[in-house]
């Protein structure tokens, strides 16, 4: 197998994400590949740092439109600190409010 085929998004499957629902199409596959590549360079600040898992999971479980938005946000983060801030925002402003009964759309608009 050639080296170029090893790095192709069509030959790489997304890393295991607990809630991964599968790649919808080639576009979604490319987004997941880009995110995984960016997050592979992320430097955890402690063992409990779950920034990369949160960002990869959001990209994997959202419909393609939402995945595109998260992808753009991740790719626009110039530093690991910016990735941590994005992850914290998604967790505190989207995921936690949705879990506690607040409509997700309403939570993301506030």
Describe the structure.
- By secondary structure, the chain is mainly α.
- 62% of the residues lie in helices and 0% in strands.
- The protein has 6 helices and no strands.
- The longest helix is centred in the C-terminal third of the chain and has 20 residues.
- The chain is globular, with a radius of gyration of 14 Å.
- The N terminus and C terminus are likely disordered.
Provide a concise account of the structure shown.
By secondary structure, the protein is mostly helical. It has 6 helices and no strands.
* Contiguous uncertain segments of 5+ residues: 1-20, 106-110
Query: Whole-Å distance between the termini?
Result: 49 Å
Structural class: mainly alpha
Which outline best applies?
globular
Q: Please bin the fraction of helical residues.
A: 55-70%
Number of helices: 6
Radius of gyration: 14 Å
Record field, number of beta strands = 0
Q: How big a fraction of the residues is strand?
A: under 5%
Label this structure with key terms:
110 residues; mainly alpha; 62% helix; 0% strand; disordered N terminus; disordered C terminus
Blueprint of the fold:
Layout: H1 3-6, H2 26-40, H3 51-61, H4 64-75, H5 80-99, H6 104-109
Helix pairs in contact: 2-3, 2-4, 3-4, 3-5
């Amino acid at each position: 197998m050639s080296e170029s085929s090893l790095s192709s998004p069509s030959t790489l499957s997304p890393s295991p994400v607990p809630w991964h629902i599968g790649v919808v199409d080639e576009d979604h596959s490319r987004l997941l590949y880009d995110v995984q590549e960016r997050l592979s360079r992320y430097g955890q600040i402690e063992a409990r740092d779950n920034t990369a898992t949160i960002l990869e999971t959001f990209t994997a479980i959202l419909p393609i439109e939402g995945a595109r938005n998260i992808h753009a946000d991740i790719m626009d983060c110039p530093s690991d600190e910016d990735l941590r801030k994005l992850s914290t925002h998604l967790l505190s402003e989207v995921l936690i409010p949705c879990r506690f009964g607040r409509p997700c759309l309403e939570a993301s608009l506030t």
